[in-house]
Fold:
Amino acid sequence: MHDLQDTVQRIARCAQQHGLRVTTAESCTGGLIAKSMTDLPGSSNWFEYGFVTYSNGAKCDLLGVDPRTIESHGAVSDATVRAMAEGALARARADYAIAVSGVAGPGGGTAQNPVGSVWIACAGGGPTATLHLHLDGDRASIREQSAHEALHMLHDRMNNV
Structure:
């Protein structure tokens, strides 16, 4: 968790230097990324929203993900996580959005998306970028690794401001 806090502090410095706002759209991490951000005092100066869209319905209702995207590609996919990030960015009126969807386990895995399969998307500051991860460990470990990777992706994107 210490590394998460260090990365969040770097994100906060960058956001404050450039007057940027950040939002999150989380599924398998269940709000861990937003929690990491709001653990930092003063985060209200740069953190806008935290969407926890665990169900497919929430992804559609809150983020505007087209149900056909989930039906065609699945909730754990490039297309869905990209739509989540872009939907969060638009709805929160933020400058950057990070989104995560994956299978944290211990159940729920499929041949296409086994436990540990995680997609991350970062929107803002250019074309939406995605990353597909294959993580090992138990549920807590997969969620923490996902948050760690998402925060690093966001920080790297913001550093190119």
Q: What stands out?
A: The chain has one domain: 2-158. The first helix runs from residue 2 to 18.
